[in-house]
Amino acid sequence: MTQRHPEFDVIIAGAGPAGSFTAFALARAGARVLVLDRARFPRSKPCAEYLSPQASRLLSEMGALDAVEAAGAAHLAGMVVHAPNGAVIRGNFVAEHGYSAFRDRGLALRRVLLDAILLDRARAAGAEVREGIRVTDVLRDAGGRAQGLRVVRADGRFEDFHSTFVVGADGLRSVVARRLELSRTRRMWGRRIALVAHYENVGDITQWGEMHVAEDVGYVGFASVDGGFTNVSLVVPEQLARGASGDRGAFLHNWLLQRPQLAPRFKGARRASAVVATGPFASHAPCAWAPGAALVGDAADFFDPFTGEGIYSALRGGELLAPRLMEALGAARARDEDAALRTYDRDRRLEYRGKWIVERLINAAIRSAPAMNYFARTLEARQDMADLLIGVTGDFVPAREVLRPGYLLNLFRQPDFARRPVPNE
Ligand SMILES: Cc1cc2nc3c(=O)[nH]c(=O)nc-3n(C[C@H](O)[C@H](O)[C@H](O)COP(=O)(O)OP(=O)(O)OC[C@H]3O[C@@H](n4cnc5c(N)ncnc54)[C@H](O)[C@@H]3O)c2cc1C
């Protein structure tokens, strides 16, 4: 190891799923880990709160799966997507394509419960956790290498924490990514805002999560979560959401009631939480490391809420990062530390590349009502194709299955022609 002996091997900014998994895996491997979060847990987080079937593998790895079940997580059998023209795509997690997930069902648990469970697992593995502390800057040595974090405490006092490595797991607007000049605005996504709330007594809620894509380029998702609540997450272009700045509750309610297919289901419903807003989502880091530092979870790259892959990707990112950081901690020279972090960045690309493409294609479709309507008609008629696509977003079917020329070609065929089987390249 290089000649540095700070109090901590790794300091992690952010105690969401990415920070908790990274801290858990590092502490379990024997590293001295400090996790800092500006919030105090349990804290909520605007999210549709659906965990893909494959996320259960990572929950199980952390020893958190039983606690998540015991907290009352709802089970989801698949997803149903409603296109503006009324076409309905129903994708099942258990299907005939031959792939199976760690669990047959997705889970849905309010983040106020889920994130506290995950953080407890990091603590139990030996990570030190300090809450109510906001990270403001990355400390660097004369050569520009990260060597700790500057924070501001609740009483306004600044303090410096030194470490051999720093991890930015501080979410969408990561301070660590910005201070290291790693984050970029992704223009092609446009600027969108999400409004999220929990409701009671929404009509006709089933074991399938639902997405309803609207003509005016917005969409809303519903899914059961614990406690009999339904999570309602609306995503709309920023200019439309300006109307929500006065009264978010009224904006969300009116948006739902103005859709004839949704309005009857909300007649007897009651909003059981405040409406929280988040966004815009247009940021990512083309490179997820810098000397002495790495990014993980939303701090590195944000997955669009439509595909519901963010929590899995955050946990999986921690699983990819921790062994590379252990390698870097054992390195004899700065050059070898950098090589380990560069390998993490490569691992991430290999892991997510296919999904990034699929996600961007889905995004392009939901931003254009004619495209969404066209593809939805095909997928409505082709259960096998719908199941494969939902399996990819469920993190257990490889993205290459839906990027094959045969699959893509069939997407462009209208239902009468699309009934032929997908050729096996
Ligand atoms: C509307 C919406 C719906 C979504 N729905 C889903 C879904 O259904 N399923 C799914 O898998 N994903 C979903 N996602 C994505 C998912 O929420 C994220 O991908 C996931 O939370 C990423 O985890 P993370 O640990 O990287 O970041 P976060 O969960 O955002 O955690 C970051 C942590 O860092 C802390 N922090 C931030 N700044 C600082 C600072 N300066 N100092 C100290 N601490 C700081 C925060 O308090 C927070 O605890 C959705 C996202 C949105 C916006």
Structure report:
With 425 residues, the chain is of the alpha+beta class. The protein contains 15 helices and 21 strands. The chain has a domain at 8-49 and 110-185 and 283-358: FAD/NAD(P)-binding domain. 37% of the residues lie in helices and 24% in strands. Strands 1, 2, 8, 9, 10, 11, 20 and 21 form an 8-stranded mixed beta sheet that branches. Strand 14 (208-213) and strand 15 form a beta hairpin. Helix 1 runs parallel beside helix 4 and helix 1 packs parallel to helix 9. The radius of gyration is 22 Å and the shape is globular. Flavin-adenine dinucleotide (FAD) is lined by residues 13-19, 36-39, 45-50, 134-135, 169-171, 175, 194, 196, 233, 278, 297-299, 303, 305, 308-312, 314.
Features:
8-stranded mixed β-sheet, alpha+beta, binds flavin-adenine dinucleotide, FAD/NAD(P)-binding domain, 425 residues, disordered C terminus
Reconstruct the topology from this structure.
Blueprint: E1 8-13, H1 17-28, E2 33-37, E3 50-51, H2 55-62, H3 65-70, E4 74-76, E5 78-82, E6 88-92, E7 106-108, H4 111-125, E8 128-131, E9 133-140, E10 146-153, E11 158-168, H5 175-179, E12 184-185, E13 192-200, E14 208-213, E15 219-224, E16 230-237, H6 238-241, H7 248-257, H8 263-266, E17 270-271, E18 276-278, E19 283-284, E20 289-290, E21 293-295, H9 310-329, H10 334-366, H11 369-381, H12 383-393, H13 400-403, H14 405-411, H15 415-418
Parallel strand pairs: 1-2, 1-11, 2-8, 5-14, 11-21
Antiparallel strand pairs: 3-7, 4-7, 5-6, 9-10, 10-11, 12-19, 13-16, 13-17, 13-18, 14-15, 15-16, 20-21
Helix pairs in contact: 1-4, 1-9, 9-10
The protein binds flavin-adenine dinucleotide.
